[in-house]
Amino acid sequence: MRYAPAILAGRLVRALARLRSRGGGSAVPGLVVNRIAPGLLPHVLASFPDGLVIVSGSSGKSTTTKMLVAVLEAHGRRVFTNPSTANIAQGLTSALLERTKLNGRVDADLAVLEMDEGHGARIAPRLTARTVLLTNVMTDQIDRFTDPEKVAAYLATIAGRATESVVVNADDALLEELAAGLAPGVRVARYGVTADVLARLLRGLGYSRTSARRAAGGVLVTDVDGARARVDAAGRTIDVRLPSRGTHYAVDAAAALATAADLLGDAFDPELAASTVSALPPVFGRGEIVTVRGKEVEFVLVQNPASFQLNVDSLPENLEQVLVAMGSDVRDPGYFWPVDASRLGRVRIASGSKAADVALQLVYQGVEVERVEPDLGRALDDFLALPNPASGRKTIVFTADSMRRTRAHLGLAS
């Protein structure tokens, strides 16, 4: 019970934060608790009977975590997890406060936690994980992760805390190097795509044809058609409906299925896993379709050049109404210039604090930009006020900062 005072203090701070700002202050309680009881987080995460599973990597963490949790729960496991926006130390602790008893225990069989690469590496030395799932290595958030080798080093630190297994994307050469250096006795499980599917992935993503074949025996994506994928898992071929269009979502599904199969062993049911993943809605912003003010809108989150390229290329051609918003999370807009966004054709409004920069990029790539409006709230209001498009749906492509501001302006839960 030595952590009871810290837990009570955290809950009080959480209540006060929510009184001050509805839905706000989610990280503040964790910040306070970590300051007064730095041992609480590792203590609670060590208490789950079936252990801790960490999900990390540059892209795909949120969707993969959601899929993995759903599959484990469908197999009867009680899982504690964290929201995708709570993947740093204070956010993780805040999430724990929601369910931690005063004795520092959570009523669940295991924890599956998404962790930011940098923050995860910082707290990893205090943790012991049963399994670590790694998605990919990219130059993401260029102000924090200046090159892929730096990200790989962070992920190696996290993977080093695994006692049983590490699950890696076999199409990522840096993750294969990492897997080769794991401690003896830690098994490696793999997932990936076939050479045919790999050939459809577009330029600049750093995938290797040869490494794809090393996923044989693991979970392999054999075909992708829009929002549907065919996957070989546990000796069975299964069809999966994805939360949104694109090979990257199929890879997320393969990651979740490979990790579930590794954790569950003979209890893993591929058909149950496939039907569970197929029933999942998108994680907010990731191909999510919502109705706002009577208008159907698709939200498309882009966080690095690879995700920008893959998401834009997955959109239908000749969309009539597109809003692109780039926010303050993009320190250097030139980071996104390698992306070929010409498929968009026409953008009704470019917005966000980097509106002029993203508009310049689009125009240089042959995209017609009708209006540049830095005030995101005004841009959203005017965009939603447009009549419904004759075909397709209203589509908002945004970076993380603009996503948060969009949801807040529209009164959507995050």
UniProtKB/TrEMBL annotation:
Domain Mur ligase central: 55-259
GO molecular function term, any single one: ligase activity
Keyword vocabulary terms for this entry: ATP-binding, Cell shape, Cell wall biogenesis/degradation, Ligase, Metal-binding, Nucleotide-binding, Peptidoglycan synthesis
Pathway: Cell wall biogenesis; peptidoglycan biosynthesis
Pfam families registered for this protein in UniProt: Mur_ligase_M
EC class: ligase
EC number(s) from the headed UniProt entry: 6.3.5.13
Signal peptide: none
Matches recorded under InterPro entries: Lipid_II_synth_MurT, Mur-like_cat_sf, Mur_ligase_cen
Catalytic activity entry: beta-D-GlcNAc-(1->4)-Mur2Ac(oyl-L-Ala-gamma-D-Glu-L-Lys-D-Ala-D-Ala)-di-trans,octa-cis-undecaprenyl diphosphate + ATP = beta-D-GlcNAc-(1->4)-Mur2Ac(oyl-L-Ala-gamma-D-O-P-Glu-L-Lys-D-Ala-D-Ala)-di-trans,octa-cis-undecaprenyl diphosphate + ADP; beta-D-GlcNAc-(1->4)-Mur2Ac(oyl-L-Ala-gamma-D-Glu-L-Lys-D-Ala-D-Ala)-di-trans,octa-cis-undecaprenyl diphosphate + L-glutamine + ATP + H2O = beta-D-GlcNAc-(1->4)-Mur2Ac(oyl-L-Ala-D-isoglutaminyl-L-Lys-D-Ala-D-Ala)-di-trans,octa-cis-undecaprenyl diphosphate + L-glutamate + ADP + phosphate + H(+); beta-D-GlcNAc-(1->4)-Mur2Ac(oyl-L-Ala-gamma-D-O-P-Glu-L-Lys-D-Ala-D-Ala)-di-trans,octa-cis-undecaprenyl diphosphate + NH4(+) = beta-D-GlcNAc-(1->4)-Mur2Ac(oyl-L-Ala-D-isoglutaminyl-L-Lys-D-Ala-D-Ala)-di-trans,octa-cis-undecaprenyl diphosphate + phosphate + H(+)
Quaternary structure note: Forms a heterodimer with GatD.
General function of this protein: The lipid II isoglutaminyl synthase complex catalyzes the formation of alpha-D-isoglutamine in the cell wall lipid II stem peptide. The MurT subunit catalyzes the ATP-dependent amidation of D-glutamate residue of lipid II, converting it to an isoglutamine residue.
UniProt similarity note: Belongs to the MurCDEF family. MurT subfamily.
Protein name in UniProt: Lipid II isoglutaminyl synthase (glutamine-hydrolyzing) subunit MurT
Organism of provenance: Lysobacter korlensis
Gene behind the chain: murT
